[in-house]
Amino acid sequence: MPNQRLRDALLRNTLGFDEVAKATGVDPKTVERWITQDRTPYPRHRHAIAAMVRETETYLWPDAVAPEKKKEINESEVVQVYAHRHAVPQDIWGHLIEQSKISISILVYAGMFLVDNPALIKTLRQKAESGVKIRLLLGDPASREVARRSEEEGIGKTTLGAKIRNALAVYKPLAEVPGVEIRVHGTTLYNSIYRFDDEMLVNTHVHGFMAAHAPVLHLRRLSGGDLFETYAESFQGVWDGAKPPKW
Q1: Which residue among 59, 67, 153, 189 is least crowded, i.e. fewest CB within 10 A of its CB?
Q2: Can you provide one Gene Ontology molecular function annotated for this UniProt record (predicted)?
């Protein structure tokens, strides 16, 4: 079976066999076999390729890292654990946004605490204009999932939907900015995800508690780990099934 993940990663980064061969010090035919025959490169070659395509080794070669080593790497991906989202220092949010050079991806239902920052829209616009890809993924205010979550938080069936509409109104000026894409989803939200390049804040959701009172994991992506990658793939799955909002 061919390694479709590796093939896709090289195509997305416009990398050919010759370029990969030069970077890894092997023959182009060897690179071709890594793809067409799903051969597993040596660790030093995996490191080099993963860095070139900005993917983790675990994503490109799921079975290449030994379980014991993977466990160690996964534990190292956890930078900090906060008992509550409101315990995350405000300067952490600002720092992660400001340092982003490639992408910012946000998955929430409403995330109203973000738009409480009056400088957020201006900052996101500036980041997009500098080349940062921004994806904002909010809950569909008309969905059953949003209504259910609103009831579970004890704030009434329609309150969360109203919060989402308010958040969308704040984000609307970004809708026409090149590099910014806004979608809405109707999924059960198990975690809110805030990704800034290779760092991520994951706000877990707890039944009966508002998100601000639930724990947060601060993760940093490491080659060979799959904890960060799990949440990244989760975001992508929701994104793929989402749709443009009805302004």
Answers
A1: 67
A2: DNA binding
